[in-house]
Write a structure and sequence with these properties.
The protein is an all-alpha fold and 183 residues long. Helix content is 51%, strand content 2%. The chain has a domain of 121 residues: Histone Acetyltransferase, Chain A.
């Protein structure tokens, strides 16, 4: 026997008493037109250049964070905790804190628009280090060494092109190239 849903005035109480839930309303998909612009394509997963840039940035991050570099990277791994480190003026001096854990989270969530944003965050982290610490400090020295490691890694950066995945349908390919592709 198939269960039925009650239709009386005390609908809610009958539904609860009977142990059955009413079916949810279904809605057809939106007829909204999706437009792909050239700017949106830059961050699109189909953009080979973007994927290669993020793959390279992830590789740089992993190389910097290798165990052999722990003496250098230990100061940059986690966000600075001014209370634990007993440096209460840290946020008075450093207005835009950055650390390797935050950078990794941004890489994993595809927050970066390109390799330049990744590079800017690393440089921000190092600028913070040099701004807050004094020359001769262990952290300052680690920052100098970290910068040399990072600069070496970035010197290995390949030339990225704006090549897109090939689209077999010539009309779709033309519309995608013009930035007027609609679905």
């Amino acid at each position: 026997m198939k269960p039925t849903t009650p239709k009386s005035a005390s609908y809610a109480s009958e539904v609860l008493d009977s142990g059955f839930r009413p079916k949810r309303e279904t809605h057809p998909p939106s007829k909204e037109v999706m437009t792909f612009t050239k700017d949106a394509a830059v961050k699109n997963k189909h953009n080979i250049s973007y994927r290669e840039q993020m793959r390279f940035a992830t590789s740089v991050w992993k190389n910097l964070m290798k165990p052999k570099n722990i003496q250098t990277t230990q100061f940059f791994k986690d966000p600075v905790d001014p209370v634990a480190l007993q440096i209460p003026t840290y946020f008075d001096v450093v207005k835009h804190p950055m650390d390797m854990t935050t950078i990794k989270r941004k890489l994993d969530s595809n927050t970066y628009d390109g390799i330049e944003d990744f590079e800017a965050d690393i440089n921000q982290m190092l600028d913070n280090c040099f701004l807050f610490n004094h020359e001769g400090d262990a952290v300052y020295s680690a920052g100098v060494h970290f910068k040399s490691l990072f600069d070496y890694q970035m010197s290995q950066k390949p030339q990225f092109t704006d090549e897109m995945l090939e689209i077999e349908d010539p009309e779709i390919a033309k519309a995608a190239a013009e930035g007027t592709l609609t679905l």
